[in-house]
Write a structure and sequence with these properties.
about 425 residues, 6-stranded antiparallel β-sheet, mainly beta, 13-stranded antiparallel β-sheet
């Protein structure tokens, strides 16, 4: 017992001695471990190359919005599919309504919405302009609208505050539902599309999706049979909902020597940085790969021309990856970049960019550390939006050769030198 007490007293004494030390480390060696800050400008040859490319359009899983309309050469069509419908033999007592709550809109005044019955089975996880289900293409085309049976002159529409209420005549809706519940359905839900109004190609509306509490609601009352006196109410969201987009990537995918990040069509930027030792203030006995990168931010300023950005109701989210092989501008035939050629670190974080911000600091700390330390070969990095395929948002940034020098992108690195005893 005395031995245990003695050992405890010795440990406490050592803790007190180390705790009262004025040295910068407990081994008794003074060192200057204050972080250094360097800003590497575009004019210093920071950028070996940069460009943007357009990726294939797909689905944004669990999207909280659904879009109908036209924007930047793209047409968006909303698809809805309802289930758990009455069995055959039911009788509607009044005209059903479909209520769509509006989340956001762009130039939607005077916009004309139309509706159609989808002719082919589809799945909201996989549906695109070309594909109906996983590995199954649409048999008919959305380009000429043959993929749906258009409902002409049958629907009444009114706007109530933030909602669009569509009334469907009971006689027509009776036939539609009877077609939906057959063993081999006559149609597979509703398509909501728009016409180009007054020559305008920049009108769209965002509806809340079934992933929210404000999703679409189909409502009607019915008897189960003509002799039944009990009235039942159907009031449900669609089981499936998505929207499909007509615009395809530019030919060859390459979108030019620009820095653009976008959601529809997904637009990404490839950037290769020159991380040279001369750009850092290092003592003669310190090699660049010995430093610790505490923080590395690529600062990019957004362009303010109206045709170079479009904000929706939420901030942008940017995510950086490192590349596993070279994708130089002279090798655009290798585009788009496949997933197996993209890597990321678990410590990588998303950078956010709000509507009022003039620039964004893209946190690329783990990538810069890996390239400087030569843990990963520097094939460049890929900047993407975390919201690809979610909405029409996009933003263009000033490039390294911009006339406005103060708007050119640059790299800010906070780093610490290694401790080397004298």
């Amino acid at each position: 017992m005395r031995i245990v007490t003695l050992i405890t007293l010795i440990i406490l004494t050592l803790v007190m001695i180390f705790g009262c030390s004025t040295r910068k480390n407990i081994i008794g060696e003074d060192s200057d471990l204050e972080p250094n800050v360097v800003e590497i400008k575009a004019e210093q040859g920071l950028f070996e190359y940069y460009y943007s490319y357009e990726n294939e359009t797909g689905n944004f899983m669990r999207n909280t919005k659904s879009i109908t309309g036209h924007f930047r050469g793209n047409e968006s069509i909303t698809l809805l599919r309802f289930t758990n419908l009455p069995d055959s033999g039911f009788v509607l007592t009044e005209d059903p309504t479909l209520t769509l709550k509006i989340r956001n809109n762009y130039n939607a005044e005077g916009m004309t919405l139309r509706f159609g019955l989808i002719r082919q089975n589809w799945h909201h996880f996989f549906a695109t302009w070309e594909q109906a289900e996983e590995n199954i293409e649409w048999e008919l085309s959305w380009d000429d609208q043959s993929a749906m049976e258009i409902l002409d002159g049958l629907l009444g529409m009114v706007t109530e505050e933030d909602s669009l209420v569509i009334t469907i005549p009971s006689v027509k809706m009776q036939d539609i539902i009877e077609g939906w519940i057959q063993e081999e359905p006559e149609s597979y839900g509703l398509a909501i599309f728009s016409e180009v109004s007054n020559g305008r190609n920049d009108q769209y509306v965002e509806f809340y999706s079934r992933e929210t509490t404000n999703g679409p609601i189909l409502n009607f009352e019915y008897y189960t049979a003509e002799t039944d006196t009990i009235i039942y109410t159907y009031e449900r969201m669609p089981l499936q909902q998505t929207f499909i987009n007509s615009k395809k990537p530019v030919e060859g995918y390459y979108a030019g020597e620009e820095i653009i990040i976008g959601n529809i069509v997904p637009t990404r930027s490839v950037i290769k940085l020159n991380l040279e030792e001369d750009s850092f203030d290092l003592p003669p006995n310190i090699d660049l790969k010995m430093i610790t990168v505490n923080r590395a931010d690529l600062i990019v300023h957004r362009k303010t021309d109206e045709d170079m950005y479009h904000f929706t109701v939420e901030p942008f989210e940017f995510y950086p990856y490192y590349l596993l092989e070279e994708f130089a501008p002279s090798e655009t035939e290798k585009l788009p970049i496949e997933a197996e050629n993209i890597g990321n670190f678990t410590t990588t974080v998303t950078s956010f960019f709000g509507v009022d911000a003039e620039y964004v600091s893209l946190n690329i700390t783990p990538i810069v550390q890996a390239h400087i330390s030569e843990i990963k070969e520097n094939f460049g990095l890929l900047i993407t939006s975390s919201l690809e395929n979610k909405d029409n948002g996009f933003i263009g940034f000033y490039t390294p050769d911009s006339v406005e020098i103060e708007k050119r992108p640059y790299l800010r690195v906070i780093y610490t030198l290694p401790f080397l005893p004298e």
